[in-house]
Specification:
- The protein is an alpha/beta fold.
- It contains 22 helices and 18 strands.
- It has a 6-stranded mixed sheet, with helices on both faces.
- The structure holds a DNA duplex (12 and 16 nucleotides).
Length: about 575
DNA sequence: ATTTCGAGCGCG
DNA sequence: AAAGCGCGCTCGAAAT
């Protein structure tokens, strides 16, 4: 196995720096491989020790930031038109931005590129594995966790640092070739241009109202204690652990309530006969609320910024969506009492915008179903329309409940949900019972009402291929040719993800130079924090960016965005 | 004692 | 009888 090596030049004096600046400005390299070594993982707590820059036909330049008083003298490194190649650019850009550097794109991220090329194949994307798989080269990572704050770095540390930057150039070449050969250029561009907004969102974070959270937590705990003791006495078992599905199942059976599982979908249909099940469900809801959200959110408040800084993972989901963690803002309960805990500082406003029914619009665009297109173009409410079509009565006579059931149908049946699943889905998500005959009838009438959807399902069912694409050309591979529902869902969810990323890039550009910050994105929603005086203008920019993002792919249906300005995330 | 796994459930 | 897609977090139980 070939061991990768590289020459490097260690720069620690002003004199060396000025010489190297000339070399960099004359580098003519279209690509700069850039890597950092830092004293830790937190840009608000830790420092950059080294900046390594690899160009073609030069040794790797290693800048030791601990040896320079004034870091601004290093800014020139980034002031050029070269494509900046990083592995996980988000990490490095967060540090560079916090340290005051302005890094101009375009960017190429080898980690994201690898994920684009391999989406659906469930492969790790760390640098060592990429080098091995794509270049047949072994790199050592032992020094990665070494102490980067020592006064004088070892030869081995510098050697390691230089290799990590140097390897980015051949890696970029191979990955770019893969991207081009598979027509993944557009999606790569979308992902790379979303890096900066992602960096900004993570650095900005959100402000939370800790005292309000504390109040809610106390309330929840009181409620929880009451429910627990009531349940334990009803089961005549003071040791019963209500969080153990195993124990709960046993306890229920001993009371003559035969259940296969203790999941919500198994319990809800029986609540009418056994009120105790309702109590169990209420206990679980309160417990989840308390442990997953009320108790854990304050733990994520950063000591330096006083805000929570969730981690966003581009392509965290195989469809192209972000995933989010620490904390996962994508799963904060919708109840306004919880969302009201996400606030803005005095003098600021929170702007909330979400795409209206974006996935259904993508479905309409994909299938070109005449009725769907007409409904969207006439500004009709699609859920009411579906209700009217499946219930066979005029929209004006549709009840609230019928509309809600139609909503479930619109989401479920477009993605290949079975009749059984539809019935269950409606129950779990909307608390509405649907009889078998009703579910069947809705299913049949739905596809009669939207013939192009029926055709779409037919085509996808017969298709024999183990990959599918979004409108940006984003590819997802899957192991079975017969993954019908994945084939339906991925282009829809994935195209909506494409649209979100494009919108964020537009938005990021338009907000440059303003005091408005992007502070969150949740699938089809974007959150901004703006000075009060600029809120209205920022809301316009946000709406425009999202519409423009949507219009990249939606040509036959209008893109609609709901925008609200308020003081917290619970604002209606 | 520590890691892994599945159940359950929050969100879009 | 039949169980839409995409995630992350928390717990208890099983596995190591």
């Amino acid at each position: 196995m070939e061991l990768f090596s590289s020459d490097y030049l260690y720069i620690s004096t002003a004199e060396q720096l000025s010489q190297v600046k000339t070399a960099i400005s004359q580098a003519r390299s279209r690509f700069f491989g850039i890597d950092l070594e830092t004293t830790g993982l937190d840009p608000y707590e830790n420092q950059i020790r080294l900046i390594q820059v690899a160009t073609s036909n030069n040794p790797v330049f290693i800048f030791d930031l601990f040896k320079f008083q004034d870091l601004s003298s290093l800014q020139d490194i980034f002031d050029n038109g070269a494509t900046k190649v990083f592995h996980n650019a988000k990490f490095d850009l967060k540090f560079l931005k916090t340290a005051g550097f302005v890094v101009n794109g375009p960017f190429f991220d080898t980690m994201l590129a690898y994920k684009i090329v391999t989406a659906g194949e469930y492969k790790g994307a760390n640098l060592k594995e990429l080098c091995f798989e794509l270049l047949g080269v072994e790199i050592e990572k032992e020094e990665q966790i070494s102490d980067w704050s020592v006064p004088d770095l070892t030869e081995s540390q510098l050697e390691y640092a230089s290799k990590d930057a140097a390897i980015l150039l051949p890696l970029q070449r191979v990955l770019m070739e893969e991207v081009m050969n598979n027509m993944l250029y557009q999606v790569a561009k979308i992902e790379f241009e979303a890096i900066e907004p992602t960096v900004e969102i993570e650095l900005n974070g959100m402000l939370i109202d800790s005292s309000k959270l504390e109040t809610l937590k106390t309330e929840a705990e009181t409620e929880l204690k009451i429910l627990q003791s009531e349940l334990q006495s009803e089961f005549q078992n003071s040791d019963l652990n209500l969080n153990s599905p195993q124990q709960v199942k046993k306890a229920l059976i001993s009371k003559g309530i035969e259940v296969k599982s203790t999941s919500k979908s198994a319990l809800v249909p029986l609540v009418g006969d056994f009120p105790i099940l309702g109590k169990i469900l209420r206990y679980r809801k309160e417990f989840k609320l308390n442990t997953s959200f009320l108790s854990s959110l304050p733990c994520h408040v950063h000591p330096k910024t006083g805000r929570v800084h969730p981690t966003l993972w581009q392509m965290g989901a195989v469809t192209g969506r972000y995933s989010c963690s620490n904390p996962n803002l994508q799963q904060i309960p919708r109840e306004s009492k919880v969302r009201e805990c996400f606030i803005v500082p005095p003098g600021k406003k929170l702007i909330i915008a979400d795409f209206s029914q974006i996935e259904l619009r993508v479905v309409a665009e994909l299938t070109q179903d005449k009725k769907m297109l007409a409904a969207f173009n006439n500004g009709e409410d699609l859920h009411s329309l579906t209700a009217s079509l499946v219930c066979q009565k005029p929209i004006s006579q549709i009840s609230k409940e019928e509309r809600t059931k139609a909503k479930a149908i619109n989401f479920g049946l477009t993605f290949g949900m079975s009749v059984f699943a539809l019935k269950n889905y409606t129950l779990i998500n909307y608390g509405l019972e649907m009889s078998w005959w009703q579910a069947w009838r809705f299913h049949d009438r739905f596809f009669e009402a939207y013939p192009a959807l029926k055709e779409w399902h037919q085509t996808e069912k017969e298709k024999m291929s183990s990959e599918c694409f979004t409108m940006s050309g984003r590819r997802r591979k899957f192991p079975e040719e017969s993954w019908f529902t994945v084939r339906l869902n991925t282009p829809v969810q994935g195209t909506a993800a494409d649209i979100m990323l494009i919108s964020l890039a537009f938005l990021f550009e338009k907000l440059k130079g303003t005091e408005t910050k992007i502070i969150g994105t949740i699938h089809d929603e974007i959150l901004l924090e703006a000075p009060e005086s600029q809120a209205a203008e920022a809301a316009n920019i946000l709406e425009d960016s999202m519409k423009k993002g949507g219009e990249t792919f939606l040509k036959s249906v209008p893109v609609e965005v709901d925008v609200k300005i308020g003081m917290n995330w619970g604002a209606k």
